[in-house]
Amino acid sequence: IVRRFPYAPLQTYVDDLFQFLAAPLPVILHPQRGFAAMVRALMNGLRELDMVVSKEKSVGIASSPGLCRDLALQLEDTGMQFSHSTKSLGVDLVAGNRRCTRTQKKRLLALKARRSRIARLKRGGVRTARFFRTGFSAAVSWGTHVIGISETSLQRWRSEVARGCAPGSAGQSVDLVLLFADESNAQHTDP
């Protein structure tokens, strides 16, 4: 596959394979040398090795809706779906020059969904800041080192952490709540 398509690198990460092609539209859509031919060659090669290609997880991303449609038509028999973005290794991956934060927003919404349970723990005398320093913030922060985080999302995250550390903290300073949530200089509750 690498010899047949030297202009399109094949990358692996544990059990995930990535094919990448950045080229003019006629090259991408070419019947023998384009992206669809690359995908078919890879799928056939994996089947020859008695490996299974997941139809649910085989996703392609393209830089425009029109290209998504064209590639989906060329690979219709494979069941492969195309979109402008997808999730790869827990982080949004997008074809284009704008970042996608769909997964990051879902993680923040999942933290908000725990709000009432965290408040019950706090009212029961549990020091909830410990949960934010360990698991909760780690779950939300996954992938921020790859795509970054906007100031607005960071402020929402900080507000949610402050609310969890001091239930009934409406109207209080987020900075002060997060500052007093730490019991020593070694602790860092503030995201």
Account of the protein in words:
The model has no long low-confidence stretch (mean pLDDT 81). The chain is built from nine helices and six strands; from the N terminus they run E-E-H-H-E-H-E-E-E-H-H-H-H-H-H. It has helices at residues 25-28, 35-48, 65-74, 102-113, 115-123, 129-141, 144-147, 151-165, 174-181, and strands at residues 10-13, 16-19, 59-61, 81-83, 85-88, 91-94. The two termini are 44 Å apart. The strands form three sheets. The chain has a two-stranded antiparallel sheet. It has a two-stranded parallel ribbon with strand order 3-4. A two-stranded antiparallel ribbon has the order 5-6. Helix 5 runs parallel beside helix 8 and helix 6 packs antiparallel against helix 8 (151-165). It is mostly helical and 191 residues long. The radius of gyration is 23 Å and the shape is elongated. Helix 3 (65-74) links the parallel strand 3 (59-61) and strand 4.
What is this structure, in a nutshell?
With 191 residues, the chain is mainly alpha-helical.
Shape: elongated
Helix/strand/pairing class, anyone? mainly alpha
State the helicity in percent bands: 40-55%
Strand arrangement within the widest β-sheet reads 1-2
Order of helices and strands: EEHHEHEEEHHHHHH
Low-confidence stretches: none
Terminal residue distance: 44 Å
The number of helical elements comes to: 9
* Average pLDDT taken over every residue: 81
Radius of gyration: 23 Å
Main sheet overview: 2 strands, antiparallel
User: Strand tally, please?
Assistant: 6
Strand residue percentage: 5-15%
